[in-house]
Amino acid sequence: MYKCCIFDLDGTVLDTIASLSHSVSLAMAHFGYGPVDEEHTKKFVGDGYKKLVERALIYSGDEALVHYEEALSVYEKIFEENCLYEIKPYDGIPELLRFLKEKEIKLGILTNKNRVRAVECVETCFEPGYFDLIVGDGDGISLKPDPAGALFMAESFHVKPSECLYFGDTNTDMKTGIHAGIDTVGVTWGFRDQKELETFHPSFIIDHPEKIKHIFA
């Protein structure tokens, strides 16, 4: 019986691609580069903002990463001002979360996003305290795909990994959940396609949040 659900944030709970693409494009413009479209941004995110900036610079032509250190600072400032840009929950997510809360399932967010920005995004789209725990970059825990964050959350909820479900939309998420010994749910409405998720053979692959409710019946 599952007692806890841990969710990735970007691409799983919240559609944040517009804010990420907008922010990284503004950061690249600072160095005279063109915008990074949403499709490329989807491929660049998932491993923290430093990897996003690195990949965006290489895509823009700075293969030697000459501007890398400065670009990190530029992006952080820009993202602080734009992290709420056009963000919204994915269809069916609010209903799934309400359903889980009615079942008294603990709810957590595990993200590679800066924790302050993550909380800001979550509390803009949901009421403060809606999730029982939010863990992100800056909490002193290794970033995904290291399973440390998922295991920390299970321990915090006083449940075994086998009593958790982990939801995510990228290869990073699949590695995180599976390496933590947690049944993992690949979601296809996010930033990556089903083919990428299938490579890792997660316990479930779903194309809408309602498709997982049956296991809690």
UniProtKB/TrEMBL annotation:
Q: Which domain of life is it from?
A: Bacteria
Gene Ontology terms, MF aspect: hydrolase activity
Q: Do you know which InterPro entries this protein is assigned to?
A: HAD-like_hydrolase_sf, HAD-like_sf, HAD-SF_hydro_IA, HAD_2, HAD_sf, PGP-like_dom2
Instruction: List the keywords (alphabetical).
Output: Hydrolase
Membrane-crossing residue ranges in chain numbering: none
Keyword set includes Hydrolase: yes
Whether Methyltransferase counts among this entry's keywords is no
**What protein does this entry describe?**
HAD family hydrolase
List the source organism: Lacrimispora xylanolytica
